[in-house]
Every structure is written in C-alpha cells, then in structure tokens.
Amino acid sequence: MIDNDPVFEQIINHTLVFEGSYSNDPADPGGETRYGISKRSYPHVDIAALTITQARAIYYRDYYKSPHIDRIVTYADAPQLAAKVFDLGVNTGHRRAIQMLQRAINQVCAGEVAARRAAPWRQKIARLIQGKPLATDGIIGPVTLGVLRACPHHDALLMALKGEAYQHYIKLGKPRFISGWLRRLGADA
C-alpha cells in the first residue's frame, strides 16, 4: 500500500519518464523489464503483465521505504538528494546508489575538522563519524542521516553524487547505453 506521500509521487513520476513500458533487450544489463522492474530482481513476477500500479507499489515498498530513501526527505530535508538516490537505486541497485551518496558525503561534508576552528556543523559531523570517513556500507542509518542533516551543502552533495554515478557508468563499459544513462543522470526531479 502506498501512503499519501507527495514527495514519492514526484520522485516516481520522474523515474517513470525514463523507465519505459516493456523491454527484453539481451544487451541491456536489466534484462526483461517493464516500468523498470526486472525479471532478475523479481523472478516470481510476470513482467510482461505487470501493471503500472503494481510497479509503483514495488517501487514504494522496495526502493523508497525499505532502503529508507523516505528518511532522507523527512529527517535530513533533502528531497532532491532523495530523488536522485531513488532514481540511481532503480538504475543501479539501491545499495550501490546509497554507497554513491555516502562517498559524496565524504567528499563534500566529512573532511578533516580542525579543533576549535571549524564551523559548528563540521564539528557536529566530526562527532558523528568519530574522525573517520562515513562508512560506505550502502545503508541509510542514523549516522548517514545525521551527517546529511548537519551538512548545509545539499547542492554540492547532489553534484558529487552525480559524479559518483558518472564514474560508475563509465566503469560498466556499455557505450550503447551511456548517453541514456547520462541524460537521465543530468535530469532533476
């Protein structure tokens, strides 16, 4: 069941622009898909007969609520980041997308903090991560959320996240799909 969540509605509508109806391209890493839901991830689902309502319910449950993308919005007040992490999760897997976010956080917000000289938000982040980089475990937990909430540079985080995704796509070595992936990466919800 999908709660009345206007942020999810905006996010899923954006993602569905890039996820066509039915595809079974053997060269596509996603394999057989409909609305972006793949047979590889959901072997028990009849992909060819999947409805948009069923796809939306899967996205809500498995790509938004379960990996805690919704908490990026409610706890850290970062809907644009949540939208991009969600969309990357659909395209690359939610654990990998969250790892990209965590690496972006390390680049932008979790640098070394000199005692008594740093802004209060940096001091708070230093306490949260205890002087180490944020773990890139692919889990949105209290530390990741706390750092996101403390960091005032969500626009820079979004850019760093896109950079992480770009590197991932290049490493895949699938030139046939790269232009579509990059066009999708550049589009904001």
Note down, in words, how this protein is organized.
The chain has 189 residues and is mostly helical. It has two domains: 1-66, no CATH class; 77-183, no CATH class. 59% of the residues lie in helices and 3% in strands. It is built from nine helices and three strands. The protein has a three-stranded antiparallel beta sheet with strand order 1-2-3. Strand 2 (33-34) and strand 3 form a beta hairpin. Helix 1 crosses helix 4 (79-92), helix 4 packs across helix 5 (94-108) and helix 5 packs across helix 8 (154-172). The model has no long low-confidence stretch (mean pLDDT 89).
Features:
mainly alpha; 2 domains; three-stranded antiparallel beta sheet; 3 strands; globular
Radius of gyration: 17 Å
Distance between the termini: 23 Å
Give the total of beta strands: 3
Average per-residue pLDDT, rounded, comes to 89
- Quickly count the domains: 2
Helix-and-strand structural type = mainly alpha
Instruction: Give the topology string: H per helix, E per strand.
Output: HEEEHHHHHHHH
| Helix content bin | 55-70%
Order of strands across the main sheet: 1-2-3
Biggest sheet details: 3 strands, antiparallel
Poorly predicted ranges: none
Overall geometric form = globular
Count up the helices: 9
Strand content: under 5%
